[in-house]
Amino acid sequence: MFSFRVIDPPNVEKLLDMKQVIELVERAYLLKAQKEAAVFPMVFHEFSPGKADMDIKSGHLVGADIFGLKLVSWFGDNPAKQLPPLVGFVLVLDSRTGVPIGMMGGEAITLMRTGAAGGIGAKYLARKESEHLLIVGTGHLAPYLIMSTLMLMDHIKKVTVYNHHSLEKARSFCSTISAILKEKFLAPYRDNPVLFERYASRIEQVEFAATDQIQKATGEADIIITATPSRQPIIQKEWVRPGTHFSCIGADLEGKQEIDERIFASARVFVDDVDQAVQVGETEIPIKTGVIERDNIVAEIGSVMLGTTAGRLSDDDITIFDSTGIALQDLITADYILKQAEAKGIGIVANL
Amino acid sequence: MFSFRVIDPPNVEKLLDMKQVIELVERAYLLKAQKEAAVFPMVFHEFSPGKADMDIKSGHLVGADIFGLKLVSWFGDNPAKQLPPLVGFVLVLDSRTGVPIGMMGGEAITLMRTGAAGGIGAKYLARKESEHLLIVGTGHLAPYLIMSTLMLMDHIKKVTVYNHHSLEKARSFCSTISAILKEKFLAPYRDNPVLFERYASRIEQVEFAATDQIQKATGEADIIITATPSRQPIIQKEWVRPGTHFSCIGADLEGKQEIDERIFASARVFVDDVDQAVQVGETEIPIKTGVIERDNIVAEIGSVMLGTTAGRLSDDDITIFDSTGIALQDLITADYILKQAEAKGIGIVANL
């Protein structure tokens, strides 16, 4: 029999902070680049096409001695049943013995690690002095993407917010986002006045502005992060100025697309996982339509961190980070939570 | 948040009985034949070739409104660490909402459902009046395979036991097997004198005999069940008499083989899952060596239960059931355990 720890959602949230998650996700990318990690093939099943599906992403972090999986279900009819449409969990095992260690719901981890990925893309690929961030999409992920980018890019002064369907939603988002960022992300730093003050002032000093002029906003942005469920490009190639960095977050299923595939033709393209990006990421359409080939992907982002591949070559480069989300991000974060929980006696321990 | 139930190993064992598991496994096969079930692609990863691996088998039982997965790790060095070499769990979710329901260790379920499969193969494919069972292999699975076959085949009078490496092990197995069967399988029927008496007398009336004469034993058997980790055929084609039924249980990985591939040429071959049998089952080698083609597999066993495919056509047919083990067997059994546990208030309930 083995002790197996289950952490409830409030404790998962309590044990995570964005600075830590950024470090964890960077470590996962780095281990992958060092061949100290393996992404296993994804299992995908549609229960009812366009209405309900599930996927199982799994992998092995050799360098962290863990393996495991994340299962995420999407049931479009759930809200009518007072249930969330996305439900999932992350489960971690010891890769030296195969023994299960513990599990937890996947929601908070997914939001945090995906948010971290958007900022990490900017950190390694955007121009260091980038001042202007454009966020396309005002859903659950947007605050997480903004926070990680503010933490990682010290010169950001302005965040323009665009919702493809509603200026009103973008305005409403801007009116509450400062308060939301403070509430969601600052609590873990209450005991660390230096960090608390640093992040609080980042949130306070930045200007948030809603727009419905996506062409103009694109032309003014240094960094563009897209996080929508779109299946049609929202941003056209002609609008993009030299030097722009894209972190494309939304595309994680076949057919999803947020930016004009022609942007890829002249951009330096980086991904989190080549196989997955080609299959389901923003990179899928440009390859399927022949705009680029698989070999035109410069590298996985971990290679840039590791220093084996150059990221941006000049201030005029257009760079793209296609983040599809890989199990390694979830596993390393879940493992961190489980270690913290064990040390603090948090969670329910069952025998398995 | 969702309630998620974790059942510990003693309770899993307490909530299972072989008669019930046979019914559950039959139902899983039947649902599959009725296209009320889907087996998802298997994920397999070798941590260290020949020393440590893991697989994730998953699937959907439409008819039972559940889906889920079973993860099994094999770490050959575990015994030196006072850990079992095989470690795993089964996790069940609701296929109407995607909500996780519960989980438990996989050991007892695997033994019970695999044992049940061997007997079910005999029930649907062996001659009804079969009297003589040959068990090849004296490992953990053997008592489970014997018990299910005794429960399902009323005329069995003799069980011959063969261990490919040691007559001594076969003898020792025979000297204790009656007591082991009673201890392992009768407890759940204490409140049901009719069943208790029926199964107790089946165990008492059967003769167990060890042998090291595998050629002779093969020629005398009506039913042969193989459950070894062999990678070389143990039973040759020339030894097999007409009318014999094989339930091949051991082969579940590429390269495993227990019976001469030439036996397949003139046999009626049934499997639990065609894709998996061709990939990793006893059927793999006969197809790879060209003895049969994939189309020579008569059907999945569920079709025989459903009546859409005939099993045995004559008393002289040699029949083979290649059981590789499918997630549906585990899921339906785990779901039964979780429903029983909920009704009885057993297990630990965590928030997920």
TrEMBL record, chains A, B:
Q: Which EC number applies? A: 1.4.1.1
**Which InterPro entries does the record cross-reference, listed alphabetically?**
NAD(P)-bd_dom_sf, ODC_Mu_crystall, ODC_N
Look up keyword Lyase and say if it applies.
no
Q: Tell me which Gene3D superfamilies the record gives.
A: NAD(P)-binding Rossmann-like Domain, ornithine cyclodeaminase, domain 1
One GO cellular component term of this record is: cytoplasm
Q: Short name of one Pfam family for this protein? A: OCD_Mu_crystall
| Enzyme class label | oxidoreductase
Alphabetically list the UniProt keywords: Oxidoreductase
Q: Which GO terms describe its molecular function?
A: alanine dehydrogenase activity
The name under which this protein is listed is Ornithine cyclodeaminase family protein
